[in-house]
Write a structure and sequence with these properties.
28% of the residues lie in helices and 22% in strands. The model has no long low-confidence stretch (mean pLDDT 92).
Length: 129
């Protein structure tokens, strides 16, 4: 699967997001260590902060399907001109649990500008047990 196809999967699932409060939709798509694709979208809740992030949903889907490592994750947020939507701090730590130095985090903003990060760039000195 190409990066563009993975970003398309994230864009498609973003449309399923439940965002009645913020109207800020996020979609995430993961390629795991078996080559399978898993998607997730953000789900808000009136009892903030009980909602869930798109990245967390995609990671849960990966784990439920037997995946153990994130090879690549694509994140797409917003809708109207929002710029690049990088994972929040909590999701950076969630990604860290299933990532290694080769994991790629890709984002494409509404101006079609590519952003590719390593986990070390987004979460230097991350916490590990």
């Amino acid at each position: 699967m190409t990066d563009e196809e993975l970003l398309d999967a994230a864009r498609t699932v973003r449309e399923m997001a439940y965002t009645p409060y913020s109207k800020f939709r996020v979609g995430a798509a993961i390629i795991d260590d078996h080559g399978n694709v898993h998607v997730g979208c953000n789900v808000e809740n009136a009892a903030y902060p009980q909602g869930s992030c798109a990245e967390a949903g995609a990671i849960s889907a990966m784990v439920a399907s037997g995946g153990q490592r994130i090879v690549t994750i694509a994140v797409v947020g917003g809708g109207e001109k929002t710029g690049a939507c990088t994972p929040c701090g909590g999701c950076r730590q969630r990604i860290s649990e299933f990532a290694d130095e080769a994991t790629r985090i890709i984002i494409k903003d509404n101006d079609n500008e590519w952003h590719t990060y390593s986990l070390a760039e987004l979460l230097p000195s991350s916490f590990h047990l």
